[in-house]
Amino acid sequence: MDLSIIYPVHITKESRYILARLDQCLRHTIRNAGSAEHIIVLSGDKPYIQDAIKITNHIDQIQTIFDDNPSTPYSPGIARNIGIQRSSKQQLLFWDIDLLGSPLFFQELVSHTKNVQQQPNTFYMYPCLYLTEQYTKELFIQNLDEEVKDTTLEQCYSDATQLKTNSIEHFALATSTILCNKTKLEKLGSFSPEFVGHMGEDLELLNRLAINAQQYPIEQDHTLDHSSKNPSQLKGFRKHFARYSIPHLQEGIFTVHLHHSTRIYSNYKNSKQKNLKLLHSKIFQSLKNIPKAETQVFEFKEDYLNQAPKIEKSLKERLYRKTIKMIRNPKNFIKDSIKNIKKI
Q1: 276 & 328 share domain
Q2: Residue 48 has pLDDT above 70, yes or no
Q3: CB of 130 within 8 A of CB of 170?
Q4: Do residues 91 and 3 make contact, with C-beta atoms less than 8 angstroms apart?
Q5: Alpha carbon distance 71, 137 (integer Å)
Q6: Helix, strand, or coil here: 42?
Q7: Residues 324, 196 share a domain
C-alpha cells in the first residue's frame, strides 16, 4: 500500500500511561494496515523513550525517528512534519496513539488511499467517538494484553449512536486523522509550526486542504467558530469540516478515542486560548481572495445525530471540570460565570 501512517509520540513522567496505549494501538493498526509504512516520531524523557523503543523494536514495519529537540510545550504538528519529511510513500495518514479504528475504516482505507493517489487534491478526514473514562476502562484498559476485537469497536458505535451517555463524551467531527497526498500537502505548507501546544494545528490544516479541494462551497459565515453537540447547529468552519466526516460516521467509518486525564497545570493544555486566536486569524486571512457562496441548509441522510440530546455529565464531573477551568484560566472562568448569570 502506498501509504505512510505517522504517529507523534511524546512521553514524559506525567504521560507514561501512554506506553501501554502505544503497544495496543500499534498492534491494532499493524494488524489491519500491515502493508503500510508506520513512522513514529518519538520524543520525551529518556527512561520512557527507552521503554517505548522496547515496544517498537520487535515490530518490523515500524520506523522510529527520534526528535531530540521537541518544542515546549509539545507540538504534535511539528512532530508530524518531521514524519512527513522521512516518509517514503506518497499518501499520508496521521494517527494518534489514543485512537483505534473501526473495522470498516480499515476496509475502506485501501480504496480511499487509491482515490487520493489518483486525485491529489482529494483528502479524507475521519470522525472520532470520544469515550468516557468508565467505558474506556471496561472495554480496553482491562484488556490491554488482548487484541482489540472488531465486535468491541462495533459495540462502541452502537452504544454511541444510540446515545448511551455512559459510553461517549462527544462526537468529534473535525479531527487530526487526515488522509492526504504528500506532494500536495507539502505544496500547501504541511502543519503550521506556529501552533505549539494544544489545539488548532489540525483545524488550520483542514482549512487549507478544504479550500484547495473545493468539494463544498465556502459559506458566508465560514470564519465563525461555533461548536455544538448537535451537528445540525454547527456554524462556520466547524460546520464546513463536518461535511467531510459525517458521511463516514453514518457509514460506520470512524475512530474511537480512549479516555485519559490531563494535569491541571499543563502548559500543553493551557496553550489552547493562544492557539485558538492564531487559528481564527489564519482562517480569516485564508479567505480574503475566495468568493463565498450563500449559506445553505446543512442536511443529513439520517437524523439520529440531529436529534441527539445533550450528553449530561454527573454533578461530580461538572464540578471537577469547572474547578480545572477556574485554576487554569481564572479570568475566562469569571467571564463565563458572569455570562451564565446574565442568561438566568
Answers
A1: no
A2: yes
A3: yes
A4: yes
A5: 31
A6: strand
A7: no
